[in-house]
Amino acid sequence: MKKLHIFIIKSFLGPFVSTFFIAIFLLLMQFLWKWIDDLVGKGLAINEIGELLFFASVRFVPLALPISMLLASVMTFGALSEKSELVAMKSAGISLKRILNPLIIFIIFISISSFLFSNYVMPIVNLKSGSLLYAIQKKKPALNIKEGVFYNGIEGYSIKIEEKNDDGSSLKGIIIYNHTNRNGNDNIIIAKSGTMKLTKDERYLEFRLFDGYSYLEEKEKRGNKKNPHRTTKFKQDLILFDLSGFDFKRTSTELYKGHYAMLNNKQLKNAIDSLSLKFNERNTMIQENILNKYHFNIEELDKKKIQEKKDTTYTQKVKIYDYAINKLRTLKSVTNANKSDLEYRQYIIRKHKIEWHRKIAIAFACIILFLIGAPLGAIIRKGGFGMPVMVSVFFFVFYHVINIIGEKAAKEATLSVTEGMWLANFVFLPIAIILLYNISKENTNFDLSSYTNLFRK
Q1: What does DSSP say about strands 157-164 and 204-217: parallel, antiparallel, or unpaired?
Q2: Contacts 24+ apart (CB under 8 A), 208-215
């Protein structure tokens, strides 16, 4: 049996490893497509891009495992059925349970590893990746001044160059608009030629201009309808542009440490308890404040005021009614504000609970999708990347859609967090049981009519 178990595991490992890296690659392409606008033109170094892609790839590991598990199981058992090796095993008296035993042990090990990875590695990766992405988003585009086009990358300035030599530093036909005073085009510099280079510390861009004019429109003075202009001619001028905004600065990871995606399950549990305690305290405080400030007890009124109220005129009654209406409006406004605050606190608590359940649900999905893929492969009796991929993609898309619906319902509190995050697993578990039952009875001609009749009864 050892040789048989080794043979089955080897047959499974090849498709599993290949589909795992294919899934990582596809998810990485989706990631690049999503963030391409924030990455292009930032002048990032190769090591920074490599670091970002590495963190993104690591983040996709828990999601890629269920996909590869489904694909590999369908491909493996499809190939065994296509070559009649599965039939030969059954003919030798080996049950499906014994055939699946080594793989089930392996899948349980992968599932536990997936949870441990999500619980201990993913928070660190999310922290590093989030900090790096934020820094890239805040980084200004790389300095790239093109011919005949106004460049607005330097804050407060618009620069246009008619001609730039191949060396990248010699310029002709230079126009610089200075908008730092925020008064429109009141400061313009025009030069026939010049040079452009960075200072040694790369903190400033140095423009050395030759044969030009500087036009300055001064502010309107009292009694003058027209604004005076001042023109200055120069043979040579030097302008320095501050490039500090182009620096690539890492965001401090301390800013993200409290985020739910950066916590393991133990930390999430503590955070949920702390947030729930603060929510209850806030709820009690709001109720007490509203009752104390707006509770109206007529018995506490002074008898003299009651007598005055009986003798009030029409105008005084109107004032009393206006006062009561304003009091109610204030109460409504305060109540709505407090309600929004409590709803937001509940939403944050749900987000923490969702993240807690996500790690376990994705790990458990590896087992369920394997138990679906193995009998599916035996039913379709095809190996390779043809039919197995089509069937696997259909089932995984179905699983992913249900998972998204469940997570959204959990966020909106239409379902409990447990129901929402485990909805896809709850739906697919009966499918796995039905498929396994059919294969164990050697019924590869799967028919749903018997089960639909059972539900009708």
Answers
A1: unpaired
A2: 208/236, 208/237, 208/238, 209/174, 209/234, 209/236, 209/237, 209/238, 209/239, 210/235, 210/236, 211/235, 212/174, 212/237, 213/189, 214/187, 214/188, 214/189, 214/190, 215/187, 215/188, 215/189, 215/190
Residue 335 above 60 pLDDT? yes
CA distance 52 to 134: 11
Q: Which of 355, 126, 346 is nearest to 256 (CA)?
A: 126
Higher pLDDT, 399 or 186: 399
Highest mean predicted confidence (pLDDT) among 154-158, 313-317, 339-343, 430-434: 430-434
Please name which of 414, 421, 259, 280 lies closest in space to residue 352, comparing C-alpha atoms.
259
Q: Is the pTM of this model over 0.85?
A: no
DSSP codes joined into one string, 7-57: HHHHHHHHHHHHHHHHHHHHHHHHHHHHHHHHHTTS---HHHHHHHHHHHH
Model confidence band, residue 446 (pLDDT cutoffs 50, 70, 90): very low
Instruction: Locate 82 and state its tokens.
Output: 């296509």
**Residues 364, 427: contact at Cβ < 8 Å?**
no
DSSP class of 151 = B
Domain boundaries, the chain: 2-139+353-456, 157-246
What number of other Cβ atoms are within 10 A of residue 11's Cβ? 19
Q: 140 φ, ψ to 5°?
A: -75, 155
pLDDT (mean) for 30-59: 80
Q: How far apart are CA 281 and CA 2, in angstroms?
A: 61
